[in-house]
Amino acid sequence: MPHTASGRPVKRLLLAGCAALVLGGCETTSSGGPKVNTEVAASSQANIASLSDVVARNPQDPQAYNTRGSALARAGKYKEAMLDFDTALRLDPNFAQAYANRGLAQVSLGQPQLAIADYERAITANPNYVAAYVGRGNVYRQARQFEMAMNDYNRAIQIDRHNAEAYHNRGLVQQAQNQHMFAVEDFNRAITADANATPPRIARGYSYLALNDPKSALDDFNTALATSGNAVEAWIGRGQAYEAQGDQERAKASYARAVQVSPKNTAARDAFNRTGGKTGQTYNLMN
User: Where do the TPR repeats start and stop (predicted)?
Assistant: First the structure.
């Protein structure tokens, strides 16, 4: 595990490519559990209802089932989504997108081997389908099968040299292998491809910490927090960057905010306690 200049471990950020699907439509409560954002949930339900009307009018259209399945998956209804993807593939056995979408749902259901099989079917149906290579690479990365993950990300980038997700996830593999200079280069490419992407900025911040560059790390964490204020990993990283600079008060305030955002996050709680944080005390973030 990489360390900061102060010798404290840097918690690596290994964000799955499917995180947006898993977390979309939720926010963190003060108790640390997921709370459905009622406006987003209502919008999602309305969208699913509308898509169900489309399916009813077009019962032989595989795209209609695939689209509704994607909406169901975004709403966390993975088993229902699987039924729609199954129907889409029964109607069109060469539907690469439906295979990849079903693979992503399999990941969310804790079935990585079935996910790999679906991504492979997607690639067979369309050898240039970038999302399938990235999706399969993510499964391999999460299983720490880094060589196979790198092969998939490299192939995705070969097909689409502007794919931010492929660069980001390839950077995560290099970060996990303590190859932080290479990781930073890939995070740079991901940010160039998608300037509004928050995950590669957070990940780059952790690699900067491992490279003993807390100033650059702090810039990344603050930029990420400007658009994603509840990103607990960014608050933790911000605290570590301030600690590396010897600023204990700002570090403590950052950890306090991390605990407020995610009270059950062990890394946030441990850092807060380690720096002398007191429950119930007010801390000034001093941006």
Answer: 62-95, 96-129, 130-163, 164-197, 232-265
**275 in Cβ contact with 243 (< 8 Å):** yes
Rounded CA gap, 198 and 232, in Å?
Answer: 12
Which helix H or strand E contains 26, and what residues bound it?
A: strand 26-28
> Using alpha carbons only, what angle is made at residue 207 by residues 262 and 283, rounded to the nearest 5 degrees?
35
What is the CATH T-level fold of the domain 127-195, as seen in this structure? Answer: 1.25.40
pLDDT tens-digit profile, the chain (287 residues)? 343 333 333 433 333 333 222 222 222 222 333 333 334 445 577 899 999 999 999 999 999 999 999 999 999 999 999 999 999 999 999 999 999 999 999 999 999 999 999 999 999 999 999 999 999 999 999 999 999 999 999 999 999 999 999 999 999 999 999 999 999 999 999 999 999 999 999 999 999 999 999 999 999 999 999 999 999 999 999 999 999 999 999 999 999 999 999 999 999 999 999 999 988 888 888 75
Q: Which fold has domain 219-274?
A: 1.25.40
Spell out the domain ranges in the chain: 56-123, 127-195, 219-274
In the CATH scheme, what is the code of domain 56-123? 1.25.40.10
Q: Count CB neighbours of 157 within 10 A.
A: 19
Helix, strand, coil fractions of the chain, as percent rounded to 5: 70, 5, 30
d(CA 225, CA 221): 6
